[in-house]
Amino acid sequence: MLTDSKIGIGVIGYGYWGPNLVRNFAREARSEVIVISDTRPERTELARAQCDIATTEDHHEVIGNPDVTAVVIATPVAMHYSIAKEALLAGKHVLIEKPMAATIAEAEELVALAEANNLILLVDHTFVYTNQVRAIKSMIESGEIGDLYYFDSVRIALGLFQSDVNVVWDLAPHDLSILSFLVSDKPVSVSAVGMAHVQPGQEDIAYLTVHYDNTFIAHVHVNWMAPVKMRRTIICGSKKMIVYDHLDNTEPVKVYDKGVLTDGNNRHQTLISYRTGEITAPLIQDKEALSTLAEHFADCILHHDRPLTDGKAGLEVVRLIEAAQRSLGNNGQMEML
Ligand SMILES: NC(=O)c1ccc[n+]([C@@H]2O[C@H](COP(=O)([O-])OP(=O)(O)OC[C@H]3O[C@@H](n4cnc5c(N)ncnc54)[C@H](O)[C@@H]3O)[C@@H](O)[C@H]2O)c1
Fold this sequence. Notes:
Layout: E1 7-12, H1 18-27, E2 31-37, H2 41-51, E3 54-56, H3 59-64, E4 70-73, H4 80-89, E5 93-97, H5 104-116, E6 121-124, H6 131-142, E7 148-158, H7 167-182, E8 189-195, E9 205-211, E10 217-223, E11 225-237, E12 241-245, E13 253-263, E14 271-280, H8 289-303, H9 311-329, E15 335-336
Parallel strand pairs: 1-2, 1-4, 2-3, 4-5, 5-6, 7-10
Antiparallel strand pairs: 7-11, 8-9, 8-15, 9-10, 11-12, 12-13, 13-14
Helix pairs in contact: 1-8, 4-5, 5-9, 7-9
């Protein structure tokens, strides 16, 4: 029997991502993985072989298990809403994979259900739990970067092609959740163009532009058809510029003391000069994001804290993606949020 200070975790979905969640919750001292569920017998068999935890092919048994206080959902997106709704109605806290749901309406309902039942709803926006993104957030908040000009990210590789969602639903939640976390201004519209080359109607490359009611602008390039793997974001401010390369193991965040200076005194012609100062790479302790996420989920449940990436943060990302999807269908037309 679990004590009050320990959280019983039930994991639903043991495909590609589920095992990473199980591994990190198994290591988190205040949680215990009670049961793992997957509809595919080969995956439950693998789960038993890898972690000696009870399994079931029926997710209702996970939600109905009295020792399970929190349900972790790592199924394909189409199942997120119905499983999360069932779990919340059964009084369980929920951690749900990105993107939180397949529609804004579904995400809104889950947010309302969690609030009405006083339950924790946390969306796994993994990169928000990296020390790198957190360090960038601190730099922005300290004023070191100055006024933000733009956010420009590239997330490309060869694969992994998904059968149920396009590249926007698969990869853009990462960049859009980083963007929402770093930038406090609220976006007003989105435009997106993309193409499907392999699976008809399923874009494998897309370019999203997020617009604000000021001069800040964000651009996200996601692509399953690139010969090289890149995970790189530029955040440009009036004082400094940051390059975050998630694949750089030694110096993932570099701060460039570079910028443009203008001569404000000349009314007829703007004189531009360039400032090129030092490049620094702050020391950032490496830690697996999912380990921080598992700790945070336990903290939120045990101390009734609001998650950093709560249902509303998940809804915001779904809102951006749904608008991007509408824009893809309208030849890149700007879609209001
Ligand atoms: N945060 C991240 O960095 C990250 C990375 C990869 C995937 N994901 C997300 O994780 C989720 C799963 O992605 P994946 O790549 O692991 O997919 P996957 O297809 O490899 O795994 C999903 C698993 O869910 C199982 N499943 C489906 N319906 C089920 C049900 N009713 N009950 C129990 N199991 C069920 C499937 O059999 C499958 O094994 C998606 O939402 C995806 O966006 C997140």
